[in-house]
Amino acid sequence: MTKICLVEDDPDLRENLAVVLGRADYDVRTASNGVHAIPMLLDWRPDMVVCDMLMPDGEGFEVLRSVQSTLPDTSFVMMSGAIGEVADVLEAARLLGADAILRKPFTPDELLETLARLRNQARTAVNVSAT
């Protein structure tokens, strides 16, 4: 079962996304911010991280840097509902190494399709390196 760490400061959205992911047979653990997420990442070692970009107490970029330095094989999805000039920062997440970005609001299907694509890419990479 694919393990996903979901990092989102909005409690309602965090719970709703966790339900969607759980129903899709993902093993999900949640954190309300980067400060809580980083120790969990190091201990639990998820396959994927879905992380909000702008949060009090540990922004998404801090989580991304931690994942890149300690869990380089973990896929990373950055999400944000930022608008205006701040929204351009979401594209910077991709340039800094996020495997995918999601602009809020997104549908459950968009989230699941993104994760399935990343999971398939990871499987392909493992199969290629095993040959």
Automatic annotation (TrEMBL):
Modified residues (4-aspartylphosphate): D52
Alphabetical UniProt keywords: Phosphoprotein
Pfam families linked: Response_reg
Keyword Phosphoprotein: yes
Keyword Phosphoprotein: yes
Residue ranges of every copy of the Response regulatory domain listed in the record: 3-119
GO BP field: phosphorelay signal transduction system
InterPro entries according to UniProt: Bact_response_regulator (IPR050595), CheY-like_superfamily (IPR011006), Sig_transdc_resp-reg_receiver (IPR001789)
UniProt cross-references to CDD domains, sorted A to Z: REC (cd00156)
PANTHER family assigned to the protein according to its UniProt record, in alphabetical order: RESPONSE REGULATORY DOMAIN-CONTAINING PROTEIN, STRESS RESPONSE REGULATOR PROTEIN 1
Protein name: Response regulator receiver domain-containing protein
Organism: Thalassobaculum litoreum DSM 18839
Lineage of the organism: Bacteria, Pseudomonadati, Pseudomonadota, Alphaproteobacteria, Rhodospirillales
